[in-house]
User: What shape does this take?
Amino acid sequence: MTIDSASREESRKVLVELRGLHLTLESAAGAVNILRGIDLTIDEGEAVGIVGPSGSGKSTLISVMAGLERPSSGTVRFSGRDLGDMSEDGLAVLRRDHIGIVFQSFHLIPTMTALENVAIALELAKAPNAFAKARETLELVGLGPRTGHYPAQLSGGEQQRVAIARAFASGPSLILADEPTGNLDGDTGRAVIDTLFSLRAERGVTLALITHDEGLAARCDRILRLTDGRIATDEHADDHPGDAGRVTQQPNAAQ
Assistant: This one.
């Protein structure tokens, strides 16, 4: 172990921990194994890129992290709390207070302005000064002049920046982003990602990012590669500066 690796181990504080995670769904054709023995930890403040072919389990993995899907077996812990012991109401409160989610589709309420779309989650959480906080966050993502516009009056990139502002507004510990540039053209997608990473760095938030873009994944601290519901490789970008980083074969990797 290098000095840098040892320092990292000493200072790490785990935010998300998955152990022995399996998720199997029933279908007309029989049981479908979506996740097959995932062991994973994500530290506070870490950015993790999740890549892999379609159907490899990427979206399901972050759904399990957020408590939106319950695993068939294994444990999911968030900041030391076992999500398996929590009720659906408890999980909803956890997401409200600690987890922000950015989807490929923007999921904005069409009858609400950009400001209202961000403020509504804060109001539901009974946060003080919800509209002031919403306006401040929209200004941080460059939408100060567009707060009064409805989604139909915004470009795709602007709508996704509203979604990013909404995810960050409550001060979450974890942001889960599922192909956030999937519906955007190249230049717009890059601008949105710059916004996401800038805000994430400013707030010190942990990020788990699903993407098919290798260049985008390389902006993260680690890259997880999923294959057939398993972690095939886990790369740390800082272990070998100048290349893709160390590739560590996981015990549960596909054979």
